[in-house]
């Protein structure tokens, strides 16, 4: 019998087989610092679709699993990370997309909850802020909500229209802004930052 530990499994070979996948909490990828394993032919499109080798990943549970090991590093690149591997992947815009909005309460007591295409639920609050970037050429807004760590979800156009319907004026740092209340905080949506 050998005293040697078994070699670490490859990222793709260690994935559970069909039927074994369950929704999981994100892995502690911030604690892992393996060397770069290379580039994986994986891409997350602007509409939130995950692709592997040019084909869309059709199993929601598989995309959810990959999302639990996703990390954005200081080099502004996205990686799938395990304790022993780190694979670079391409992300067209943000790795998640917010496709639905739930609203409870009213006025300053209102709570907004965003739902992503991967079934994450993200409350709009100080830990999960909202920001709106304006395209310098067209002025078109691109709203984002923080999902976790430094990973964001692009807010879909439909959901942004819902936010606009909920918008009110409030004073922020002495300036009148247009935004929404959630979790006791006011979040501007006018892109005037």
From TrEMBL:
Residues 27-94, 95-189 form the DUF1285 domain. Residues 1-29 are annotated as: Disordered. InterPro entries: DUF1285, DUF1285_beta_roll_sf, DUF1285_C, DUF1285_N. It holds the Pfam family DUF1285_N. This is Proteophosphoglycan. The lineage of its organism: Bacteria, Pseudomonadati, Pseudomonadota, Gammaproteobacteria, Pseudomonadales.
């Amino acid at each position: 019998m050998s005293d040697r530990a078994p070699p670490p499994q490859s990222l793709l070979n260690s994935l559970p087989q069909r039927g074994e996948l369950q929704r999981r909490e994100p892995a502690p990828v911030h604690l892992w610092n393996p060397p770069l394993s290379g580039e994986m032919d994986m891409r997350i499109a602007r509409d939130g679709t995950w692709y592997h080798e040019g084909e869309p990943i059709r199993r929601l549970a598989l995309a959810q699993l990959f999302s639990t090991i996703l990390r954005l590093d200081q080099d502004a690149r996205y990686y799938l990370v395990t304790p022993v591997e780190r694979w670079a992947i391409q992300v067209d815009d943000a790795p998640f997309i917010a496709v639905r909005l739930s609203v409870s309460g009213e006025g300053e007591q209102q709570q907004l909850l965003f739902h992503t295409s991967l079934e994450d639920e993200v409350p709009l609050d100080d830990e999960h802020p909202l920001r709106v970037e304006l395209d310098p050429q067209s002025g078109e807004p691109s709203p984002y909500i923080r999902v976790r760590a430094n990973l964001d979800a692009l807010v879909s156009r439909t959901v942004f229209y819902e936010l606009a319907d909920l918008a009110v004026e409030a004073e922020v740092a002495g300036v009148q802004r247009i935004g929404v209340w959630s979790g006791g905080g006011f979040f501007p949506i006018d892109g005037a930052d």
